[in-house]
From TrEMBL:
Residues 6-80 form the Polymerase/histidinol phosphatase N-terminal domain. This is Hydrolase. One of its GO terms (cellular component) is cytosol. The keyword Zinc-finger does not apply. Keywords: Hydrolase.
Amino acid sequence: MIHTIADTHTHTVVSGHAYSTLTENLKAASERGLRFLGSTEHTGLMPHAAHEYYFTNMGVVPDELFGVHLLRGCEVNIIGNDGELDVSDKILSKLEWVIASMHIPVYQPSDFDGHTSAWMGVLKNPQVDVLGHPGDGRYVFDYETVIKACGEYGKIVEINSHSFGNRPGSTENCRTIALLCKKYGIPVVVNSDAHFWASIGEHTNALRMLEEIDFPEELIVNADYRRFADLITEKTGRIFE
Ligand SMILES: [Zn+2]
Ligand SMILES: [Zn+2]
């Protein structure tokens, strides 16, 4: 049975449509036995999203609370077919974990080629770590081309457990994407996308699907403490025992 030691896509009240505080989320992560929590608020153009000062001031929060390492991140919006984002590289470069996603209020679904070119643009941005909920059926793209290219650009593909049954087409699309990650050896991260503390670490749907397709455990970056800690050290220079 695969298990996860990190949840790297979570929201707090700062996002405007989530219902717990950072402290509540960290406590929930601790109670679930997680070792890392990525706090990744929505940015810029999402209604009531955090101001950029929120992201630049995150250093006031300790690196570790309740035995959980905090990853200071964001979920940045993709806003156009070239993969433009709604936060500057300067701000993103100060963060430890950047997920780029497509959201209805910000980026109206375009078409297959438009979504594909948007993702290809995102891949070329060195500030982005993770492709967020790519299984969303409203933004279908050329899965094979983009997933294969993730290897070249060193990106991680999110398997978003909340998407299953919530974002249209996701159950099937996430499976297709995961099979391509397996085929091309692309790392994935399993996340909850929690908007309330009780969902922190809720990865059941994603893990069940990955087990069904016999997905290699070593490609799940947050399935092993050392593997994940080393990845974060590589990205941030922070050292973890
Ligand atoms: Zn949200
Ligand atoms: Zn999202």
